[in-house]
């Protein structure tokens, strides 16, 4: 079997940032996959599931209501729990989505109230949410983005 591209990135040296992880084109349509790396893999604790679940719910709600809503294919957590994936229509660069990601972070940081989609009829695990910890991780992530503007895979 072919080795998938994401396994070729040295995760022992990967820093938090906003990276293009792949681009797929079929029938003239390109989908760009972004790696929103929130924590440093294998060097920091992974994001706890309730916080990651809350980031997914609030982040997806924001993105699917933004000016980019028609371009959003998917937003959700990485299985390794070190960040999220954002898939969008278009041949894009990280710089193209930087502002919307910063605005999404600000939205999560200012969010108060009931978590969108956190009712039993709306989510298969509706009660596993943690807004305070979601804000902690997003604050940390936003700081890394603003301070480092990490758009290419960068290493220590």
Taking the alpha carbons of the first and last residues, their distance comes to: 31 Å
Mean pLDDT: 92
H/I helix tally = 3
Order of helices and strands: EEHEEHH
Uncertain stretches of 5 or more adjacent residues:
none
Q: Per DSSP, what share of the residues sits in E-state strands of 2 or more residues?
A: 15-25%
Rounded to an integer in angstroms, the radius of gyration calculated over CA atoms is 15 Å
In percent, how helical is the residue content?
25-40%
Strand arrangement within the widest β-sheet reads 1-2-4-3
Helix-strand makeup class: alpha+beta
Number of distinct beta strands: 4
Shape: globular
Main pleated sheet: 4 strands, antiparallel
What would a concise description of this structure say?
The radius of gyration is 15 Å and the shape is globular.
How would you sum up this structure, described in words?
By secondary structure, the chain is an alpha+beta fold. The protein contains 3 helices and 4 strands, in the order E-E-H-E-E-H-H. The chain has a 4-stranded antiparallel β-sheet with strand order 1-2-4-3. Helix 1 (49-63) crosses helix 3 (131-148) and helix 2 packs antiparallel against helix 3. It is globular, with a radius of gyration of 15 Å. The N and C termini lie far apart (31 Å).
